[in-house]
Structure formats: structure tokens, C-alpha cells
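INFO batch 0412 | record 1 of 1 | parsing
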Amino acid sequence: MATATAVLNNFGSDAWKADFYESLSLAARLSMAVKAVKTHGQNIKMSYWLWKINGIASRFFVESDDIISGKTMVAPDTAPPTPEKMQEATETLMRMGTAFNEVYEEARRRRLLNNSLIAGPVTALRAHADQFFEMAEWINLMRDPDAIEKIFADANEQRARGEVYDLSQV
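INFO prediction complete | emitting C-alpha cells
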């Protein structure tokens, strides 16, 4: 729970909020730009925005991974997050994932995944959307520690009954 607390407290920082709102702003611009891409200049501008938004998302996940792995030290006396803060973090992460996913889907519908300047960063944007959704799910699990214990208890029972399969059998 200490790791979850450290990651969640990172969400409240001013730097994180600035990156969050910048990302949402860029996602809105990208959503509009995807619908109007006609010239090579617009492709270049959109590619720049995609690289920028992917950089912000990558930095966020690197910072979170560093906290989880212990590379970045946090104050040990950090108070646990309130249920409201956990709910807010979940909603924020879901909003980011949805915004990124919408840009990807619009680019796919407009057949921009065939464009060499745009395809790579748009695909990376989709991967970041999945990461935001996964992190939101992780926070939701942290809100209910009994559910986590139940998941591990069920897994141990299945292993004890011999209901474990090799990956090659799946």
C-alpha cells in the first residue's frame, strides 16, 4: 500500500497537474487536427504534437515506475490517500486514456495509420491509452484491499486443486 500511496501522491503535484492539462489540451488539438489533415505541413504539425504528447505520457509512466521500483524515494511519513483522491485519480486516468484512444480511433478511421509521419506516434498513443486504463484499474483495486486478498486466495485454491496450466496448453 505504501507504493500505491507514493504513486497516488505524485498525482497531486503541481507538475503532474500541468502535464495532465497540457496533455488534454494537446489531445483536443489532435482530435481536431486529425479531421482536417490534408497537406504535408499539417502532417508535420500533427506528428510534432503526437511526439510531444507521447513524451509527456512516457515521462509520467517512467516517474510512476521509478516510484514503484524504489528508484525515486518518497517521504516515508506520507499519509494514505483518501477515497476521494483515489476516485479523482481513477477518473483522471480514465479521461486521459479515453482522450488518447479517441485520437487513435479518429486517425484509424481517417486512414492516417498508413502515413509514415503519423503512424508510429499514433500507435504509441494507443499503447499509452492502455497504460492509463491499466493504472486506473490498479488504483481501483487498491481502493478495496479485500478484493485483492480474494484474488490471491482464489489463485492459491486453484493451484492447490491442480487447476494450473502451462502457457503452451492455453
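INFO post-check: The two ends are 32 Å apart (CA to CA).
INFO record closed
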